[in-house]
Amino acid sequence: TYTVHRAYQIADSFRTRGVKVVMGGIHPSVMPEEASLHADAVVVGEAEGIWGDVIEDFKANKLRRIYRQNKHPSLVGLPIPRRDLYDKGAYHYTNTLWATRGCPYSCSYCSVSTIFGRKYRCRPVDEITKEVETLDRSKIIGFVDDNIIGNPRFAKELFCALIPHKIKWISQCSLALAGDDELLKLAADSGCLGLIMGFESLSQANLTAVGKKINVVDEYEDVIRKIHAHGIGIHGCFILGLDEDAVDIFERTLHFAQKMRLESAQFASPVPYPGTALSESMDKAGRIVTKDWSQYCGTAVCLEPKKMSRETLQQKCVWVWREFYSLPSILSRLGVRRRFLVPLWALNLGWRSSFRRKYR
Q1: How buried is residue 312: exposed, middle or buried, by Cβ count under 10 Å (0-12/13-18/19+)?
Q2: Pairing with 317, which of 5, 58, 88, 191 sits 20 to 30 Å away (CA)?
Q3: Distance (Å, rounded) from C-alpha 155 to C-alpha 144?
Q4: Distance between CA atoms of 114 and 84, rounded to whole angstroms?
């Protein structure tokens, strides 16, 4: 959503030259009428099972305005992407793949279950490992799953199958990983270097309100220590300014993230992404202050907060970012003897540089 205006510019540029444009993905799927103003056709939902129809209609010069995928397709037999067609150097990172889609949870701020369904669908493990073999195994591989351990039995099978490939990988998963010792050990043994994990809030009331019932604040410290003990880094995600948050939340969250020595983190104000329950409820309450999608980046304030002013939320979010990625903070969190110290410093300095450019 945050980058959709740039996507529209690119689409418009091609169309002015007579090139047919098809748009798809999460934002066009939840805003198809808007997207159709910049495309000859919009695919709503996942492309598998419907893309062939789009191509045939294109060949016959009969493209429909909107194509709707009315089911969640099987992930069996997916073709391996032709990554060899990428221009070398034109993309920042291409060493990525999917293993699963879907999520049974219904967090109000998230559109994953809306788009990909409330049930985990898993690719055959042998097809995943075949795709892994086509990647650059000298570099870190990124599984772009929303929760790679969502089906623990599948995840264990996958991690066991990855061990012989001797890769290093990163992904995203829930805090439930720490509750399964076998799964956690297999993740580490299979080459997991780091995981994106949504802590979201230090308030249990906030977690309940947004539907993140799987998280238990009192268990956060144990979860982090346990995962760190297996040599796996954590990129923590936090939402600041939810309805139960007072102004002390910023300092408390910063202190927590630094105390637990999180390798990296991001701190966002609540964003009412279109297609989410949060967007619907906040719209009804008249609390959405902008629908300029370029502001839906997490560092701009898009909602009217409940217990603080918009100005306070904006300023304090910037303050947390600045403090967390200050040089003293990076040094105290990473130390000088941590595993993979150089890549971690590069990651943190990259976040620091990006944020400083935006808010200098």
Answers
A1: middle
A2: 5
A3: 14
A4: 32
- Token code pair at residue 291: 């629908």
Q: Where are the beta strands (DSSP E) in 104-247?
A: 121-122, 141-143, 169-172, 192-200, 233-239
> How far, in Å, CA of 120 to CA of 312, rounded?
39
The one-letter amino acid code at 358 reads K
Quick one: 128 exposed, middle or buried, by C-beta within 10 A (0-12, 13-18, 19+)? buried
**CA trace torsion 86, 44, 271, 318 (10° rounding):** 10
Say which residues have a Cβ less than 8 Å from residue 3's Cβ, sequence separation at least 6.
none
**Which pLDDT belongs to residue 286?**
97
The total of other beta-carbon atoms located within 10 Å of residue 107's CB is 21
Contacts 24+ apart (CB under 8 A), 125-130: 125/154, 125/157, 125/158, 125/161, 126/161, 127/76, 127/77, 127/78, 128/97, 128/99, 128/158, 128/161, 129/161, 129/162, 129/165, 130/80
Tokens representing 336? 């000088």
**Judging by beta carbons within 10 Å of its beta carbon (0-12, 13-18, 19+), is residue 346 exposed, middle or buried?**
exposed
* Residue 201 token pair: 């809030």
Tell me which residue of 109, 104, 185 sits closest to 147, measured CA to CA. Answer: 104
CA 259 to chain CA mean position, Å:
24
Taking residue 273's Cβ as centre, other Cβ atoms within 10 Å add up to 20
Q: What torsion, rounded to 10 degrees, do the Cα atoms 139, 143, 147, 149 define?
A: -70
Burial class of residue 343 in the structure, from the number of CB atoms within 10 Å of its CB (0-12 exposed, 13-18 middle, 19+ buried):
middle
> For residue 339, what pLDDT band results from cuts at 50, 70 and 90?
low
Strand order in the sheet with 264-268: 96-97, 141-143, 169-172, 192-200, 233-239, 264-268
Backbone CA torsion sign across 290, 295, 297, 299:
negative
| Residue range 78-102, pLDDT digits in tens | 999 999 898 988 988 899 999 999 9
Read off φ and ψ for residue 250, nearest 5 degrees: -70, -50
Maximum pairwise Cα distance, the chain: 62
Q: How far apart are CA 332 and CA 346, in angstroms?
A: 15
Rounded Cα distance, 147 and 323, in Å: 29
Is pLDDT above 80 for 16?
yes
